[in-house]
Amino acid sequence: MICIECAEPIQCLYSKYKSNYIKATVCQACGEVADKYIEFDKVVLFLDLLLIKPQAYRHLVFNSLESDALTMILATHDRLSQWKTWFARYRKINRLLVLMFLFEVYLTWAYEERAYTVWQPGTPQPLLMEHIFSMSILHQYLYYILRILFESLTFHAVIQLLFAWGIGWGAPQTINYTKIEGVTINDLLPTIVHYPRSFYAAALTYIVTVSGLTKLFPILMLIWPYDTATLTTVITFAGNLSILEALVVVADVAYWKATLVLGIALLARYGLSKAVIGAVLGWY
């Protein structure tokens, strides 16, 4: 757990007394409340995430996800049991991933179908789209499921690999607890803290998924007609910018490193997926 204002490590988010009185922990480093979101409604947290506030992302990963995950890890001592409880530890992420996946499948299908139906005679029509929409509804649905699944897996896998091998995300951390209230003199030495690799992978997946929620806004554009080409481009750019900011805040890396990783992941997602899908449809 950390202070969401200055990112200093803390022992607890709040103290509970016998009279059920709860007092939020005050960070000894910056003098601010360590985590104000423990008293806020989830709606406030969601709005702050959309506004790309660093405090909201720190709370989400280090004081919410970390607490749930490490509690179950400490309860299971062997590696096999930890793997078995993976879905239980990260059920929040799994639910969000499924929800985002289904929405993205629907949005991609709906917009490409609309673009195909408003095609003007005399203009070149992509052979790939013509081939897809000549198939049955079931085959179209399977195509978009497999396409979005492949794109998402490629995008997340590239980010995971580059952060783990290129940047060193997930390495043991030296944390100095000297500024934490209540620590004895024997505990004042720097401590090596190493979380399970699954936690770092889950944290990256979580922040990339949550920060990409702005990409769901085009759902409203299916209800109220707008200049879809321009707005979709703006929303996509805003979503990628949100992901970039989230990576910088949570992983504590320079902007140029996060930009490079995100750029490579986007190129891999769209370039590699189109090549594979084109080859599969050509074989089909």
Mean pLDDT rating: 77
Question: What is the chain-wise order of helices and strands?
Answer: EEHHHHHHHEEHHHH
What about the largest sheet? 2 strands, antiparallel
How many domain regions?
2
Poorly predicted tracts of residues? 177-190
* Strands, count: 4
In percent, how much strand structure appears in the residues? under 5%
Tally the helices.
11
Return the structural class: mainly alpha
CA-CA gap between termini: 51 Å
> How would the global form be characterised?
elongated
Helix content: 55-70%
Radius of gyration: 22 Å
Reading side by side through the largest sheet, how are the strands ordered?
1-2
Function: Mediator of sterol homeostasis involved in sterol uptake, trafficking and distribution into membranes.
Transmembrane segments: 93-111, 199-224, 230-251, 258-283
GO cellular component, one term: cortical endoplasmic reticulum
InterPro entries: Arv1 (IPR007290)
3D structure, described in words:
This protein is mainly alpha-helical. The chain folds into two domains: about 1-90, no CATH class; about 90-284, no CATH class. Helices cover about 65% and strands about 5% of the residues. It contains eleven helices and four strands. It has a two-stranded antiparallel ribbon with strand order 1-2. Strands 3-4 form a two-stranded antiparallel ribbon. The longest helix has about 30 residues, at about 135-165. It is elongated and about 70 Å long.
